[in-house]
Amino acid sequence: xxxxxxxxxxxxxxxxxxxxxxxxxxxxxxxxxxxxxxxxxxxxxxxxxxxxxxxxxxxxxxxxxxxxxxxxxxxxxxxxxx
Length: 82
Fold this sequence. Notes:
Layout: H1 2-5, H2 10-16, H3 20-27, H4 29-36, E1 38-39, H5 51-57, E2 64-65, H6 69-76
Helix pairs in contact: 4-6
């Protein structure tokens, strides 16, 4: 995957450094999910660096959010049992 997408591709980055993805998600799960579940995001060239991390840490979504807080809370508060 690194050959195709480069070292900044989130999947490559997160697999190289175990625990990074969990830390980013745990930092602020509601902000992360709110920023990812958007529509009408303006078309822009990809920014350098970790796009998923930058998106997760963005203070406000780049487009219109798809879910209300009560809907997001279902995902934020769910626990996964394996």
